[in-house]
Predict the 3D structure of the following.
Amino acid sequence: MTARLSSFESSLDELGVSVTRVDPGSLCERLDELITAPAVGVAPEEAFDDPSLSLAETAIEVDPTPAALREATTGVTGARVGVADYGSVTLSMTDRGSELVSLFVDRHIAVLRAADILATMEDGIDALDDEIGRTRGSSIIATGPSATADMGALVNGAHGPRDVHVLVIEEEGS
Amino acid sequence: MATADELRELMRTEGAAVATNTQAFNDGRYASVSDLEDYEALKREARAIKEDAIERLPELLERLTETVEENGGTVYLADDAADANEYIRSVAAEREANRVVKSKSMTSEELEVNEVLEKDGVDVVETDLGEWVLQLADEAPSHIVAPAIHKSRDAIAELFNERFDPDEPLETAEELTRFARETLGEQIIDAEVGLTGANFIAAETGTMALVTSEGNARKSVAATDTQITVAGVEKIVPTVSDLQPFVELIGRSGTGQDITSYISLLTPPVETPVVDFEDDTTPISEFDNDREFHLVLVDNGRMDMRDDEHLRETLYCIRCSACSNSCANFQSVGGHAFGGETYSGGIATGWEAGIEGQDVAAEFNDLCTGCTRCVNACPVGIDIPWINTVVRDRTNRESEGPADWLVDGLTPDDEDEGAPLQKRFFGNFETVAKLGSATAPVSNWLAGTTVSRQFMARFLEVDPRRELPTFERETLVDWFADRESTVVDPERRAVLYPDLYTNHVQVDRGKAAVRVLEALGVDVVIPQVPSSGRAPISQGMVATAADHAERVADTLAPHVADGRDIVVVEPSDYAMFQREYERFVDEERFTALADGSYEILEYVYGLLENGSDVSALATTEDGAVAYHSHCQQRTLGLEAYTVAVLEECGYDVATSDVECCGMAGSFGYKSDYYELSMDVGDRLRKQLQVDGVRERPVVASGTSCLEQIDALLERQPRHPIELLAE
């Protein structure tokens, strides 16, 4: 587990994505430090079906209006799975607009459980195959910030976020 | 076919940007795939999935239709572009769409759907930044992945400043991107329809994969209430788990990224609420997600390609652009010359022949020189040079044949119809070479006369700026017949294959090969053997090449059976034995010849590894050479043997890493391509002229490479075997 997390962190480092480990108790506090206001979010409690991961105690506006989303600088969502060897996270689409919140902002903060970090892309795709097979849902394998080289040099923040941060929740004993 | 003038103009206007960008992608590919634990196994896996999917296509189509409908979407199977466009029009009209936002899709370029929608008054906006630049500039893509690869930052800045007249002129890539993001961002949230392509579609769940980095495809789907996806029928794979090798290979193979920023796995209609972006009172979760989804699967010639044994492989293509970036000619001219109506690069010949027709493919097909550098780069192992050869052959057969009086004598080939005179001249180079040697030195003297050069320029389109090969009066076979073997108790016994050039033109390297082999205790014979068929195959004369293959295999088979190794000096002929002969002769004879033959330095390496004494060769204490390996030799993984042998003989070896020297057999002789050939060659020249290499003698393995380097440098290059025989 620790090896996977370290491998995940070094992959993210190569992508220029910062990463923070956090214990469940201090999630809200760390999020408040990491966001650039105004911030909107979809509570990770939804992605993980875990009421303890609520965003109620943060400055993040949960379930914003579309206008508030457009005004927001930071978007916080859960990420179902991490892929260690690529530094990827998978972002599920939900009826609470997780896709909009992770996309229409400058800074995306993905909240991921350490236990959900898989070693390889093969494991990641298998997990998605399983999830999509059951739910017929949709997911994004997101790796680093949105980018383009179409304007003559590599620029982050083409249509999507120019800055991505991953917050890894380490359960006790994990 | 692009003329010399057109190619020159493209190289002048677009060449620099194309060269810089394609080479960066190509270098990135090498670096990125080297990180994979088992690149070759991953490619085999990807290939197997595509082979299986195309084989089972009718069944997968049926399954996909079921699942998309179960998911709440609609599937439309379009016979051709007009059919697909009519359907897309009707969806847009029914939705009363004012604006359609598009993410990048080659299939939609193939359909030319933008024009059709615009005629209906729909505002069609390309949201991929590269595509948007081209839409504003009214230009066609020059690369299948990076469509505006031919445009420099300055040119884009000029375009934006002229078109939008911003308060502060835009200049940096950062400013241009920011501006495009904001402008397009407003248009996306205001659109009704999002039109996307698909890189793959999994039949089992109706899940499509979109490989992107900008996030525009995500936005185009998330911000609109109607999703239309157009995709060729060949994009279907069985399941989501089948995507794994492609996810790992597509970015690495194309732009050299380990993975793109976003691989969207969408099972439309997607769950994201359809919101009104102006609304400042309703929470997002209270909006419905009542999306429509239309999957337009396009045949447009693909099912016929599936039934065509030679074009079928084209359908495995995942549009990664590796064959463009690894192509020396593409690196110089880009897709505006090396491309058809929609697709560009080596694989475009297959696509354009299948979709648009033979005549469109014929327009650019000659730019594939068969160097094979794309073969290892292709993540699904398509034999792209072979597709180009087959299409060239078909083009030859469709064209009008040259007048008989020009053909008689010089072209005793098996082409019952059609190949143009220039192609038949180069394709029958064996006859030319035999005549040349038989009549040397008169032939050489005559070939150099003004009258001959004018004849060649006019009827054969041989560029007058090229020096012609000089034929030796005494061929290698004749020289060898008059001498006694020096080996009494042989270590091994070998046939030195008298390839066309070693036998007639570069006879010295053949003699050197004999001396080296004998010094290492090999009993050598050099029988009369037909030429390999490389010359005709490069001109698309498949029947003639097949006839050569048959005769070579028949001539060499008894020697192989007798326990002799077949040793080959010319890499392009050796590559015939290893690759193309599989298509021409039966499996047993192919395997015997392929397994029993060796490139000359590969063979020397084997002898030294197995105990032969290097001191029998000419060695040096402190020698230094520059070595340029041959393109086809590198594809077969043989460069390392030459380097190792030279090092063992005491040389410090600096190697080139350009994909091809640009000469490529007859290519560089042709008037239309001389300047392109020299432009490609210039990259090699630069590598051979850098500090630390400039003073070194140059060695090269291929005849073409030697001729090209001779034209590029003051230093006269030699074959590496000649160093060992001094």
Chain A has a mean pLDDT of 94. Chain A has six helices and twelve strands.
